[in-house]
Amino acid sequence: xxxxxxxxxxxxxxxxxxxxxxxxxxxxxxxxxxxxxxxxxxxxxxxxxxxxxxxxxxxxxxxxxxxxxxxxxxxxxxxxxxxxxxxxxxxxxxxxxxxxxxxxxxxxxxxxxxxxxxxxxxxxxxxxxxxxxxxxxxxxxxxxxxxxxxxxxxxxxxxxxxxxxxxxxxxxxxxxxxxxxxxxxxxxxxxxxxxxxxxxxxxxxxxxxxxxxxxxxxxxxxxxxxxxxxxxxxxxxxxxxxxxxxxxxxxxxxxxxxxxxxxxxxxxxxxxxxxxxxxxxxxxxxxxxxxxxxxxxxxxxxxxxxxxxxxxxxxxxxxxxxxxxxxxxxxxxxxxxxxxxxxxxxxxxxxxxxxxxxxxxxxxxxxxxxxxxxxxxxxxxxxxxxxxxxxxxxxxxxxxxxxxxxxxxxxxxxxxxxxxxxxxxxxxxxx
Length: 431
Description:
The protein is α+β, with helices and mostly antiparallel strands. It has 15 helices and ten strands. A hairpin with a 6-residue loop joins β6 and β7. The radius of gyration is 32 Å and the shape is elongated.
């Protein structure tokens, strides 16, 4: 109870003061927390979308290669018996040239899959969006094209294309393999490289292009970050079953440089936007330091009636804590609200900007000036996205909140040290 006077004095300073610095400091921290939460959430949406497209369609979480092809079904069942494994599918892949009826040709990676792949792999089914047709690989000459590749070729459902193997040699003939295929589906993965240079065919049709192509097994895990332990566990299981000639690899091996670049990009964005907290912290430091100098007489009086140095310092630290907590909570609530409704938020911003552009165009038209078109934050002509997505990661939000709060608290602590150096006798001597 004896320390309640500290809370009383701190509340008087922050709520009854004439300065607008506390309000500006709260707004500064709040806007910083809000901006960082929204920016990181949108960046997570883009990056995790790319990562999921790569892992769920291309590299898988774990790959098994260099094994006897006749044992493929047995190995597949062994993987599925390991705890933490969600799916295991067989596939082959081959680089080919694709040519349409317009004689235009492009280099494409063709992956051979079984017709029940989407039934076995629910995550791949979730990622692949079919703009036309469906995942129909029931025929040996059926093919699925990426949406951008089909646009390049100018082809659609039911059209015939020719595949020419770049490296494959037919076992029966000493010439490059080739065959005609009918387009039964046009997919969109959300990753431009796949949509512009990938195709899927029946796994048995790969032999028409390359008879010596090796079979592989792609494995999906419930938690991809447990790939190291699963590699060890699967390796021991295969050796115990009497198999020694095989190759196991992780998604980290295939995408190390790309994922490292994404992490670096996110880290630097975090740092750049986090500079807001440094600027706000310096402003709080200056405001608190000025407050200490303006209240020298009051501090001297508090010290004279028995207040200790630490108690007086605590008054200003509490002020900084209240500012930081209020601003961080404000930014947290509105940041999460915007991040969860990011598509609606961008639509609102675009409508406001386009309304202003409309008024300016009318004004420019009256004076025979040039006009401008509609504004889009993420235009499909520039960004390969249909809609803006955001992903909120709990520990990142907690870290941003802590940065906002601690920037104010630390700034107030440094500024309050000035109060401990004020001597009551010097301040009150001429009062």
